[in-house]
Write a structure and sequence with these properties.
The chain has 178 residues and is mainly α. The protein has 6 helices and no strands. 6% of the residues are buried.
């Protein structure tokens, strides 16, 4: 239950931060510009991303609240039914072991993100991204093949290149070692 409380706090912080960012970023006439057919300005994309992130946070927040309510109802129903102590101990030990593995994966992902930021600066986006996606794809899910991780890395990089560089004509910063 503590993990759920932490998730709710993080989601609320993201939503509050998004509200502050939107308040500062939105010009007064943004709705008029949207309906008059004006050209998209460069700062409209980050504003849209912030709005989408806030919407997704809200959806996750509602989902977490609904899950908490369901768990609470299931817990009260389970207390009425007795389960053998041996099964409960085995499930608890298995859950604890899985939690330990998940915690290790979280730390590895955090280290990968930090490494990605550093690698982006020195190697550039199009070299750092496939390395990050490849390694993260191998770390996070339970059973992923190297082939799938490699395909994910290449596909992610190609999609980023097509969308940002070709479609939106946004250039990512070049590496220092160019």
């Amino acid at each position: 239950m503590k993990k759920r409380h932490f998730e709710l706090i993080v989601l609320l912080l993201f939503m509050a931060g998004g509200i502050v960012l939107l308040r500062d970023a939105l010009p007064k006439n943004v709705l008029n510009a949207a309906f008059t057919g004006e050209v998209i300005r460069p700062y409209d994309v980050p504003i849209a991303v912030i709005a989408i992130i806030m919407l997704l946070c809200f959806v996750l927040l509602v989902g977490n609240i609904i899950s908490a309510i369901r768990e609470r109802k299931a817990k009260t129903a389970d207390t009425a039914v007795d389960t053998p102590a041996r099964e409960a101990d085995g499930e608890a030990a298995q859950a604890k072991a899985q939690e330990k593995v998940n915690k290790r994966k979280e730390y590895l992902t955090l280290a990968l993100i930090i490494g990605f930021v550093i690698a982006w600066k020195y190697l550039g986006f199009y070299i750092a991204t496939p390395i990050f996606v490849f390694l993260d794809t191998l770390i996070l899910p339970e059973k992923r093949s190297v082939k799938f991780a490699l395909l994910s890395a290449v596909a992610t990089t190609v999609v980023c290149y097509v969308v940002f560089t070709l479609l939106f004509q946004i250039r990512f910063p070049f590496p220092l070692f160019k």
